[in-house]
Design a protein that fits this description.
alpha/beta, Aspartate Aminotransferase, domain 1, Aspartate Aminotransferase, domain 2, 2 domains, 7-stranded mixed β-sheet, 4-stranded antiparallel β-sheet
């Protein structure tokens, strides 16, 4: 069986409380649940191949024309489409970051492999993206990937650095791909307003984390370059987004109050957890997202699993090692279970 290096493999750890996947701790919006409960009959027909209702809901949610929207089967589908359309000879990727960017390019550009360049984020700077990234952009970079907030660090990009990145990428002819899949669960506004000024900007978003629709695979691309949007639509599989995904996604996006409530809950609980974890002599990276990156003694991930807590080992992230782990922000009751297990695990692995 192929090794699964991402978080969220709860099926392989049925007795554990899963902190490896960073989903909305409030779960799925009620409107999305109702849509799923009543969609059985609709599944006897093919899904809408153009995702008309879902596209309209996504456009309304973002405040953009429907011609800028490409619904996808999760964010991963979006990254594969970008690889298939652009087939870049070279791409710039931050490290550490989500490995799905490289996996998508490896799969879609196999006949002419993409050279991946890594921009190393520094632990001494708490893995913040700085102006060094702007200086690292060169003309040969067909694509540049930036996660906002970054995964696994949880850091959002400052407005001045992001603006400089976009100006520089436009100058050198690089398509800037901004992964904002976790943005909705932060207190930041996101980058949709920048699309009109930067046709070389592609935003990738998903309802996986923000609305806990991980099992349905609902994501989308946003871009003001309608020619590129048309090509990205063409390379997708027919009926890529299933009927249940379209109906639940459409319903979820219409519930703005759900996200406001979610952000408030995540922000409060994240800072509470950060303070307690730091008091346990763990290094905790300041986060804007619904997860925390922390560093502790070797063997901590395995010790937590023995106490039925599944954390995300970061050993396969470039620039990190097995002393780093990522944990999700869940409900207070669940987080207290993690904190209790953390205290016991630390006693086991601390020399």
């Amino acid at each position: 069986m192929r090794r699964f290096e991402h978080g969220g493999d709860a099926f392989g750890h049925p007795d554990c409380l899963d902190f490896s996947a960073s989903l909305n701790p409030l779960g799925m919006p009620e409107a999305a649940q109702q849509a799923l409960e009543t969609c059985a009959q609709a599944c006897t027909a093919y899904p809408d191949p153009h995702c008309r209702a879902l596209t309209a809901a996504m456009a309304a949610h973002e405040g953009v024309p429907t011609s800028w929207v490409v619904p996808c089967a999760g964010a991963t589908d979006a990254f594969y489409r970008l690889g298939l359309v652009l087939r870049p000879t070279q791409a710039l990727v931050c490290a550490p970051c989500y490995s799905g960017y490289e996996e998508a390019l490896d799969a879609t550009c196999a006949g002419s492999p993409t050279r991946i360049r890594y921009h190393r984020l520094r632990a001494s700077e708490d893995f913040a993206l700085t102006m060094r990234f702007v200086d690292d952009l060169v003309e040969k970079d067909g694509l540049a990937f930036v996660a906002n907030p970054n995964n696994p660090t949880g850091r959002c990009v400052s407005a001045d650095v992001l603006d400089a990145c976009l100006r520089r990428s436009a100058e050198v002819g690089t398509l800037m791909v901004l992964d904002e899949c976790f943005m909705e669960l932060t207190e930041h506004a996101g980058s949709t307003a920048l699309l009109a000024d930067y046709p070389n900007l592609v935003l990738v978003k998903a309802l996986t984390k923000s609305h806990s629709l991980a099992g349905l695979r609902v994501g989308y691309l946003l871009c003001a370059d309608e020619g590129l949007v048309g090509r990205l639509r063409q390379v997708g599989q027919p009926w890529a987004v299933s009927t249940p995904a379209q109906l639940a996604g459409t319903a979820a996006l219409k519930d703005a109050a759900f996200i406001h409530k979610s952000v408030a809950a995540v922000s409060l609980e994240r800072e509470r957890m950060r303070g307690i974890l730091e008091s346990l002599n763990l290094r905790v990276i300041p986060s804007d997202a619904n997860y925390l990156l922390l560093q502790g003694p070797a063997g901590l991930v395995e010790a937590l699993e023995r106490h039925r807590i599944l954390a995300r080992s970061c050993r396969n992230f470039i620039g990190l090692d097995a002393t780093w782990l990522r944990i999700a922000v869940r409900t207070r009751e669940e987080d207290d279970c993690l904190l209790d297990a953390m205290r016991l695990a630390l006693r086991e692995v601390t020399p």
